[in-house]
Amino acid sequence: MSEAKNGDSNPCLQEQRLSFKCLQDSFGDKSQCEPQIENYKDCKTFWYNIYKERKNNKIRPYMPSLEERIKIKKEYMNGH
Question: pTM of the entire structure?
Fold first, then answer.
């Protein structure tokens, strides 16, 4: 399985699939899929910031494991 499709290496796999499915179902009409597309963009931004922070702090791997991501998401949701 390619890295972009692997949920362990792609923290936004579910959001990506939902936005692609919406686009497919709406025959590519992005206006009908704005919530899904925005959610996917927000997810990518969130995890990219985590990646940068870990890289700057020399924490390896730069992208947290699936188990770590679950914990990070839970802590983020509880704090916001």
Answer: 0.84
